[in-house]
Amino acid sequence: MHLYVIEYDRRNELMEYLRSHQLGTILYFPLRVHQYTTCKNRIRGWDNPPNTGQFYKTNLTLLIYPESFNDAGEHINTMGQKWFRE
Length: 86
Description:
3-stranded antiparallel beta sheet; 86 residues; alpha+beta; Aspartate Aminotransferase, domain 1; single chain
C-alpha cells in the first residue's frame, strides 16, 4: 500500500466526499508530532512547534494499493476535479 499525504484546509469535507466515492482516506497523523510518545521530550525547546498545529488540522492520507495504482489514480483525479468544481 502507498500512502499519499496531502494538505487541504477543508480536509474533513474532502475526506467525507472521497469516502462516499469509495476512495480510502485516513488521518495518518491524528496528533501533532510533538504529542506522540515517541517524539515527546526529544525535541528540545519545542513544547508547541509552530507548524505542527496547521499540519495536524489539514493533513489527509489517501490509501492506494500498487496493484490498482493506475485505476486509483484516475479515480482520484476524476473525483478531485469534481470536488473542486462543486
